[in-house]
Design goal:
The chain is of the alpha+beta class. Helix content is 21%, strand content 33%. The structure holds flavin-adenine dinucleotide.
Length: 224
Amino acid sequence: MNAAPAPGSTDRTKGRRIPENSVTETAALHGVLDAGLVAHVAVVDESAQPYVLPVAYARRGGQVLFHGSTGSRLFRGLAAGQPTCLTVTLLDGLVLARSAFESSMNYRAVMVLGIATQLAGDDELDALACITEHLLPGRWAQCRHPSAKERAATMTLALDLTECSVKIRTGGPDDDPADLVDPIYSQIWAGVVPIGKDFQTPVADEHTPSHVEVPEYITRWRTS
Ligand SMILES: Cc1cc2nc3c(=O)[nH]c(=O)nc-3n(C[C@H](O)[C@H](O)[C@H](O)COP(=O)(O)OP(=O)(O)OC[C@H]3O[C@@H](n4cnc5c(N)ncnc54)[C@H](O)[C@@H]3O)c2cc1C
């Protein structure tokens, strides 16, 4: 199998604006996808109205997997072969410059262009396991797997990572040099307010027997 083209290597995905934030390594593409929990998938309906759907997802090798309801008009459009655009954005920090204009965000972002395909049979079940394991590592081994009825209500789609782009911004503000020597604006606090991924203490629901403790695989999410 041929390796997929590097991120940003097609005319449509080549970074033009602030190209220094564009990253062409496939490892970076995989790293962002593996770190995110939510993707946004674009779909245009029959009246040409665009919609952007937030979805849970997982990466499986060179594919992004996501699922929806077979009753969803928008998902049916994707399964029918509408071109789409999927993004994953990780916010790493707020960047406070001395001016509003130069204030920014630190982020890792991925964009994938293509046409999704609908999965079936064991391949679909494997994809559902991948999505569960990506979001809830360790859970697939313990939870009840989808019944035939639940499977019938679920549409699982795969989007190949063949036309992608990655943009990553790191570092501090890029201030206008004049602001750094201005008697007023040079006195303003500037820098980065980092944003972390921080799971809180799990809260059991009212149906969980009191003797059932939080499984070790869940407590690990807080520290990994
Ligand atoms: C959290 C966050 C906040 C942002 N806030 C703003 C904002 O307020 N204003 C603003 O102008 N820009 C913002 N950006 C950057 C914005 O997403 C675009 O990258 C930027 O506007 C340039 O778009 P363009 O189409 O002119 O870039 P181009 O360089 O012409 O885009 C060329 C190609 O690069 C790829 N690409 C573009 N943007 C991204 C991306 N973000 N992630 C992955 N691939 C990408 C696409 O494949 C695109 O076709 C933000 C990005 C993030 C992640």
